[in-house]
Amino acid sequence: MKVHTFNLVVLCSMLLSTTCYCINPKFFNPSKVPNDEKPWDQTQATWYGTPDGAGSDSGACSYGKTVESPPISKLTAAVGHYIFRQGYGCGACYEVKCTDNAACSGKPVTVVVSDECPSCSGYHFNLSGAAFASIANPGQQDILRKLGQVNLQYRRVSCSFGRSIAFRMGENSEPNKLEVSMEYVNGDADIHIENGPEQGLEISHVWGATWSVFAGGYAIQPPFNFTLVQRYPDGTKGKTILVPNIFTQDWKIGQVYQSTINF
C-alpha cells in the first residue's frame, strides 16, 4: 500500500446462522447512532489508491472487494499502528473531518478501518481516494488531493451495520483448523471470539480480522457456537453475544456465513 505525499446477552438459540457465498444487503440496514458527546482528536490524513477508489482490495483486514459495496461503499482507511493494533482495530468506524483549508467541507464522514499503513505514524489515517474526496467541498476534491496531506479531526464512533455479522472462511482453512474473518460488527469496541470448553476448540487471534479455530489435530465438526465479547482498549469489557450453529460440515474456502445476531 502506497501513501500519496502529493496529489479508511445472548439471544435465543432459535436464531440460526444462514449460509451464502456473497453478502446479502438486506441484513445490513444501518441506523443512526448518536455520537455528539464524543470528543474529537487531531491527526493527519493522506490518501492512497485511485482518486475514486476504495484504497485496497487486498488490505490487512482481509475484507477483499466487499469494501467497494454498501454499506462501506469505498469509505475506508488504512491506519497507523496505534489504531490498527495488529488488527483488533479492523472494522472500527471513525468520523473524520477537515476544517483548516478552504477546500475542506468541515462535515464529518464515517470511514471504516480496512487496512494497515505500516509506514504511517501511530494515529495517521491514509484514506481511500473516495474517503479523502468525501471530506472536501463539492467540486473541490482535486484541490484537496493536490495538497496530499491535511490536518484531520477524528473520533471513534459506534458502527451500525445492521443485524448480521459476516464470517468468511479463509484460504488457509484445513479440516482440523479453520481461519475465519469477521466483518460488519456493530459497536465501538474490539471484538474477541471465545467458546465454551465443552466444544474442545482452541480459538486465537491470527492477524487483522482473522481468527484461528483449532481442534487439536482432529477434524473439526461444525456447526458450533461462537461467543463474541466486546473489549475496549482501556481493558473494560462490554457486551457478550452468542452466535449459534455457525458454519456447516460442508464448508468451503471463501464461503460466507451470515449470523442473524449482532451487537
Level-2 CATH architecture of the largest domain:
Beta Barrel
The overall number of domains is 2
The overall strand count is 15
Distance between the termini: 31 Å
CATH topology of the largest domain: Barwin-like endoglucanases
**Secondary structure category:** mainly beta
- Provide the residue-averaged pLDDT: 87
Unreliable residue runs = 5-22, 25-31
Please identify which CATH superfamily of the largest domain we are dealing with. Answer: RlpA-like domain
The rough form would be described as elongated
H/E topology pattern: EEEHEEEHHEEEEEEEEE
Identify the CATH class of the largest domain: Mainly Beta
- Please work out how many helical segments DSSP would assign: 3
Strand order of the largest sheet: 1-15-8-9-12-11
User: Compute the gyration radius: what is it?
Assistant: 19 Å
